[in-house]
Amino acid sequence: MESIDLPAGHQRVRAGEPISHLCFIETGIPSTVVHNDGGKSIETLLVGREGITGWPVLLGASVTPDETVMRVGGRGLMILAVNIRREMGNDVRLRELLLGYINICLLQVGQLVLANGQYSLRERLARWLLMCHDRLNTDDLPITHEFLSIVRAVRRPSITNELHVLEGIHAIRASRGNVRIINRRVLQEVTDVTYGAPEREYERLITRVRADVAEPSVFFV
């Protein structure tokens, strides 16, 4: 595995191009965005230190119509896709861990669809801020109103209005290019049930993996 810098704006996966590497994220936040021919786009998946980019190749895909871009710069560990696919064939635990993570990604997409169809922009925005907060070692999220309007596929004034509301209930403090999380509990109350299902599944996956690793092993000399 190769340690690499991942500056903001870096494309980890390009739409329609072969996926040659996967990247285990150590710091920073990449997100996956889907586009249509009419120029519309929306974020479908948020990744951080819990996950990897390029995972469609683990399901047998060679390309994807979606792109994955670093939203918050950081670092990661890159590995050739062919190497990790070979290791998945040799290591049952690794295969179960990676497929378990892909299941969580699909759950996240499903929760996004539910939130977009059934919940308000305020609830969806609070959910997104919590997900970012989960993936960074800071309460300060280096994001702009313009960026939020793009990934949420809404007009910028709508984002500004909802951020003001969240400020008014002392959940966040927004400034130019930054959103500070003041009170996670309040944000969670705002999200209702739009936040939590993929996160709980991730905790179950990691708990199971840790238990497997902790089992006594037999060593042969």
State the shape.
Answer: globular
Strand content: 15-25%
Assembly category: single chain
Low-confidence sequence ranges: none
The number of distinct helices, counting runs of at least 4 residues, comes to: 7
Structural class: alpha+beta
Termini separation: 28 Å
- Number of E-state strands: 9
The largest sheet, given as strand count, sense and whether it forms a barrel, is: 6 strands, antiparallel
Helix-strand sequence: EEEEEEHHHEHHEEHH
Q: Radius of gyration, Cα only, in angstroms?
A: 18 Å
Helix content: 40-55%
| Chain-averaged pLDDT | 90
Give an overview in words.
The chain is an alpha+beta fold and 221 residues long. The protein is 44% helix and 25% strand. The chain contains 7 helices and 9 strands. It has helices spanning 81-90, 92-118, 121-134, 145-152, 156-168, 184-191, 197-214, and strands at 2-6, 11-13, 21-35, 41-46, 52-53, 67-80, 140-141, 172-175, 178-181. Strands 1, 2, 3, 4, 5 and 6 form a 6-stranded antiparallel sheet that branches. The chain has a 3-stranded antiparallel sheet with strand order 7-9-8. Helix 4 crosses helix 5. The chain starts with a strand and ends in a 7-residue tail after the last helix.
